[in-house]
């Protein structure tokens, strides 16, 4: 079992595990720890990644104190390409091979229904795990992760939207807006994989207290109305092809309003990964796991409501333990 927190190891050795369709995090996240080879990264199948990496000065690109030393991906050829682009020295044939070789693992896939199986070997081995969003999309999987965390297993999961610098002023205070009465936030792609981006963007602003969800949309066009204990109504839209409106946030208050959109993906990804490293060093969570629990209930409630014809689903219907 890895000692936790990891106070002495310099640098912390990380394994980057998993790669699924539509998600290039192993390329970009590994580069934020290791640096990258510009020629190899130019061949990355996600052109937005080299575009935003190339904008960053070399002196501020990397997160200090940790390195990705091992890589495994579902397609072995992807692992070779990522290792060359992001300067990862060791490619393994099976993810479990990293046990005993690294201090912590990053599960870099965004299909929540797979995460219990992907994480189990490392949780049971005592390794700290960071899990890409969403942690889960099923009630029974939420119960499994909640049990592991209750046992003291070091598990962290978040969307990078929690760390967007454009949203930060409103996380600190919305007093100038008065009482928030209505809010909206948008994302492309599916509710199952990307709804959490929108949810975790709005959550640190309103805080805990979401009560129910009603999804009146469809598989490709999720329109989800949440009620919050503060009295605010929140509408989250996850529309499959709405790529021109990722992370557009609107806050409507009794005294003023605000509209803001994210512009700097690199900043939010780097801040998210830095928070994981800080957690590894100190053992102090950047936010309570109870927030992740509530957010996963919101994801699950949105799915359940859609599948049940738009029924209003209360979050307290969903059990975490």
What do you see in this structure?
The structure is a single chain. The longest helix is centred in the C-terminal third of the chain and has 19 residues, at 289-307. Strand 11 and strand 12 (257-261) form a beta hairpin. The model has no long low-confidence stretch (mean pLDDT 97). Helix content is 36%, strand content 22%. By secondary structure, the chain is α/β, with parallel strands linked by helices. The protein has helices at 25-34, 38-41, 48-54, 58-61, 76-85, 115-124, 139-150, 168-172, 191-206, 265-282, 289-307, and strands at 12-17, 66-72, 90-91, 104-107, 129-132, 155-158, 180-188, 210-215, 221-228, 233-239, 248-253, 257-261, 313-314. The chain starts with 11 loop residues before the first strand and ends in a 7-residue tail after the last strand. Strands 12-11-7-10-9-8-13 form a seven-stranded mixed beta sheet, covered by helices on one side. It has a six-stranded parallel beta sheet with strand order 3-2-1-4-5-6, sandwiched between helices. It has eleven helices and 13 strands. Helix 7 (139-150) packs antiparallel against helix 11 and helix 9 (191-206) packs across helix 11 (289-307). The chain has two domains: 12-160, Rossmann fold; 162-266 and 297-317, Dihydrodipicolinate Reductase, domain 2, CATH 3.30.360. The relative contact order is 0.15.
């Amino acid at each position: 079992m890895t000692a936790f927190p990891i106070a002495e190891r310099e640098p912390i050795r990380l394994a980057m595990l998993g790669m699924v369709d539509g998600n290039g995090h192993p390329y970009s996240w590994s580069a934020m720890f290791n640096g990258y080879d510009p020629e190899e990264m130019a061949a990355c199948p996600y052109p937005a990644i080299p575009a935003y990496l190339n904008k960053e000065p070399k002196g501020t690109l990397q997160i200090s104190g940790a390195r990705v030393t091992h890589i495994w991906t579902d397609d072995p050829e992807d692992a070779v390409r990522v290792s060359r682009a992001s300067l990862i020295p060791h490619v393994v044939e099976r993810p479990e091979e990293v046990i005993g070789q690294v201090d912590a693992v990053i599960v870099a896939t965004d299909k929540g229904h797979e995460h219990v199986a992907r994480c189990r070997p490392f949780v049971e081995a005592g390794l700290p795990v960071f899990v890409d969003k969403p942690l889960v999309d099923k009630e029974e999987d939420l119960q499994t992760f909640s049990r592991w965390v209750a046992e003291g297993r070091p598990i962290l999961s978040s969307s990078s939207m929690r760390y967007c610098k454009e949203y930060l002023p409103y996380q600190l205070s919305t007093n100038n807006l008065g009482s928030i009465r209505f809010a909206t936030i948008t994302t492309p792609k599916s509710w199952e994989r990307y709804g959490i981006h929108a949810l975790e963007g709005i959550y640190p602003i309103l805080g805990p207290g979401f009560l129910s969800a009603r999804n009146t949309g469809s598989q490709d066009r999720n329109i989800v109305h949440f009620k919050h204990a503060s009295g605010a109504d929140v509408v989250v839209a996850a529309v499959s092809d709405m790529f021109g409106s990722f992370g557009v946030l609107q806050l409507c208050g009794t005294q003023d309003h605000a509209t803001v959109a994210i512009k700097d993906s690199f900043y939010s990804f780097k801040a998210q990964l830095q928070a994981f490293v800080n957690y590894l060093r100190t053992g102090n969570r950047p936010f309570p796991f109870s927030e992740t629990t509530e957010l996963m209930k919101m994801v699950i409630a949105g799915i359940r409501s859609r599948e049940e014809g738009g029924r209003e689903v209360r979050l307290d219907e969903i059990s975490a333990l």
